[in-house]
Amino acid sequence: MAHAYTPGLKVTDQVWLVKERILPLKGDVIVSKGDRVEPDTVVAQTHLPGPVEPVNVANILGVPPEDIPECMLKKEGDPVKKGEVIARSASFFGLFKSECTSKIEGTVENISHVTGQVLLRGQPMPVQVRAYLRGEVSAIHPSEGVSVAAIGAFVQGIFGIGGETHGEIKIVCADHTEVLDDSKIGPACEGKVVVGGSLVTAAALKKAIQVRAKGIVVGGFDDRDLRDFLGYDLGVAITGSEDLGITLVVTEGFGQIAMAQKTFELLKRHEGKLACINGATQIRAGVIRPEVVIPKDIPAMQENVPKPEIAGLAIGSSVRVIRQPHFGRLGKVSAMPAPLQQLESESSARVLEVEFDGKERAIIPRANVEMIEEV
Amino acid sequence: MAQKSMKPEDIKVILATDCGSTTTKATLIEKRDGEYRLIVRGEAPTTVEAPFEDVTNGVLNAVGEVEELAGRKLLDDNGRIISPANGNVGTDIYISTSSAGGGLQMMVAGVVRSMTAESAERAALGAGSIVMDVIASNDKRLPHQQIERIRRLRPDMILLSGGVDGGTTTHVVEIAELISAADPKPRLGSGYKLPVIFAGNKDAVGPVKETLAEKTDLTVVDNLRPVLERENLLPAREKIHDLFMEHVMAQAPGYKKLMSWCDAPIMPTPGAVGSIIKRVSEIEKIEVVGVDIGGATTDVFSVFQDVFNRTVSANLGMSYSISNVFAEAGLPNVMRWVPFHMDERDLRNRVKNKMIRPTTIPQMMEELIFEQAIAKEALRLAFVQHKSFATVLKGVQQQRTIADAFEQSTSGATLVNMMTLNMLIGSGGVLSHAPRRQQAALMLIDAFLPEGITRLAVDSIFMMPQLGVLAEVHPLAATEVFNKDCLIHLGTCIAPAGEMKSGKGSVMNYEIELPGGKVEKGSLEFGTMKLIPLGTDEKTNLPAMAKAVFEPARGFDLGAGKGAKVERTISGGVVGVILDGRGRPFVVPTDDKMRVAKLREWMLELDIYPKAALERG
Fold this sequence. Notes:
heterodimer, A: mainly beta, CATH 2.40.50, 3 domains, eleven-stranded mixed sheet, 31 strands, about 10% helix, B: alpha/beta, Ubiquitin-like (UB roll), Rossmann fold, eight-stranded mixed sheet, 22 strands, about 25% strand, globular
């Protein structure tokens, strides 16, 4: 099968990125092509239809459903105010009146003479889409949104939580192997994207929220801490909508795993610069990985940044082992035998030989490595 | 769809594909020496998503691999499938199934959750759909919450049911009003209205049309619960298949082209698997359970008392959903199957790492054992869900005589009866590709806990979907290939049901006359397992048969009643006959030392893992 290895996560110093910024429903685009935008710039907005409030008018008035149209004081499409009488019935020669009032401000959407139910629609809710990146509006999608283009450094993570945010990069660990514990978090982290080494502890994460850091980028995270942090055991990797006061981007995996040195060095080179991060992860059809984008302030944007070519796995390729027994180790492919080989688990699989640190060699199933894309 | 009026007996070459969400599989079947056999199989990545966005690319790549392996030219210079076959060129028919792009995703609605809504759910699941949510008048959600939910879901289609014919119309119209207020949009393609099938009270057709005809693409079929005592699911199921072809498939990239190539309608993959399971049950007149455990979901199919049921456990799987299995089952339930100790923190991280890198495979024996322990729990949980869904109709008043007064059965009791179950078929990577077939057998036994005499089998290369469609066009070919090439017969599990409080003693005496005359005879002790080799017939490749006599101890039942003798011809397989004396209900020893010792004992007896690996742990 063609997909014999996991394509690697991208870590690159300069890439041309285009992000679609699309409204959930049709609306207004409020920027023009070529406009320079900041992460907080509103690029499009619309109104979502308000919530629906069903009112069982027949029950409230004590009349059969087929009489409802006669009792209604409002017709479909009419605006109503909170507390306004929308239907009235009169009985016993008009002496006793029953009334039905609206609980919300909105419009009458539907009147049913079958069920006696009236549907009221609340006020529309405004929705805004922001640029997320510092860059340029590269395309307009009329009534839907825009494309924002940016040139910048780019780090793809493996797992994250929390949505889009941005802040200046602050490195708090001496190197890519150091654990980010709570002693390294202080008031200076407020509004910052904090970069750690091999692991972020639960206490550090909690403190980062207290000091109002915007995000954390780190090599590993313990699943037990994730469960405590989320308040539930994450079953399926679909994240991004959590509202926990911080965005987390994990670059390597679960457990204590040193951040790839190249990733750490890249982030360190950009300390003090703006980073736009998103923890959204989806590992199913249409994979979404968390990311760190460090947009560069280039006066005239142009699409001539070389696009990375995705090469296949070959002898000499740099790889990361993504399963035990060598989980997290980096090395170079030193041999790629063609025939299937039997593993310790007695499964037969296609394998490759990886050389670690130019010395030790190990046989690993091809499915258990991912390429490190050298761009 | 290409129309072909070929007589079944003239069909000599069959090409079938299954477009899965990640892989497209192609199989070539030919009639050789008077019987249909699988010739080769090829596969290629599915090409529904960008940058290809045309499913036929993947189909042609997979067919190309079949061409190379079989030495048969199947594609012409324009990349079209050559038909009919002529010598070493072309195929007589081409058929396909699909679950690419997320398969068929539906929302169903009914009035009472346990009655019409459940019948609607059964119809949708039986048609091969994933049911995203079930909306009912009594589902404990407030109307505005239901509307919000419907609006957010974006299903491929909605099946609306409710009310028996001639009954009250109010409630079902109320649900129609909620759907109308939500104004749901289809998942794929913005240019068409969402298909809604109404299969409820015929008296409500008028008001439902009034409410939904403008906003949705409404179709009306016969009520799927015309009276409380009877379901009529076929019209709804057929309409779901039609709409799947017309709307969902037509929206997926490249499917119009693929549909024009096929000689039979494209079926949703699980629908096709269900069709072949039903067929096996009909032909052999047996009760069957089939399970397909995938990376994200586990499907369970069953036929008990001639009633077919299917359930999909959306978040029980071995890669994307592995973490959910762990969360739902809980650590102690997973670890009870592992014959050594592991650190919890490390285990949790391993499970999550598999979730975020789902294509990795266990390299070490310890990891394989742990993954198979999780598989047992995923299968067990999926079967629990299945048992609670595969029930006799709920809400039906039952006439009782004084003789029934002591029976505890109620309306809505499960149809699943492990004692009458004849055959258990497993499919999916963890079962089909287990390094030792014994492992697949033990996973099935531990997860499903069959009682009495039950045949075990696995699908060798996940051919069931293609054979499901083939069964619609050419039942004979489908059956022959299913028996000879698709199924790997593992053997038979003999498990007397009963408990032994003392924990010691014999649960049954057995006498099995093996082919060649050798007789295996003995007594099975409580809490033990025993493997008796009984393989396959070398000439036919079908399971070898043996005459057997079992005499369960008092209090133990093998299907004929407690303590009653059973004489039966039993079938073998690549594993053999497994005597399971652990009793039913089966409980893993709670004492940790005892548990580990027992697991090792059973695993060594059945040769599940190498001795060294068990001792090392």
